[in-house]
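Async update (no meeting this week)

Hi team, since we skipped the sync, here's where things stand on the single-chain job. The sequence we agreed to prioritize is pasted below, unchanged from the tracker. I ran it this morning and attached the output directly underneath so nobody has to dig for it. Comments welcome in thread, and please keep replies under the output.
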Amino acid sequence: MSEFTWHAGLEIGIPFIDDQHEELFTRLNRLYDMCEDGAPLPGLEAEVASLRAYLVSHFRSEEQLHRRYGFPQWLLHERAHEAFLRRLDHLCEDVRSNGPSRTSTTVFAEILIRWLIRHIEIDDKDFGAYLTENGFRREVERLIG
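Output:
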């Protein structure tokens, strides 16, 4: 069982986004567990493809909110998302090229989870604070909720 647990300290105060972040933790932990268990490459590839599709959807949701509410760091945030997806693709290619090993795939999953934690704690929390400080939080909740 993986050591990466979703907790209230990671919430940014926007339930829709917090729910998506929690789902990302669930998916990343499932991938981590598959890596630890030595899952075969086809299973890992399918899990990563599902994770990537969910990430793209989540990132696009955040980016739409950034633009709609004039988040000053929207471009940096979007670039971070793009860089993460490129890194995910690069890590996948490394595992494909070198073959999956328990060590390489577990490190792969840990890199992804640690990036997500850092991104939420810094970038996404800044966005949540921006929405709250500028009186947009309730409007976002009505829009999405």
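Quick observations from my side:
DSSP finds five helices and no strands in the chain.
The chain has a mean pLDDT of 88.
Reply here if anything looks off.
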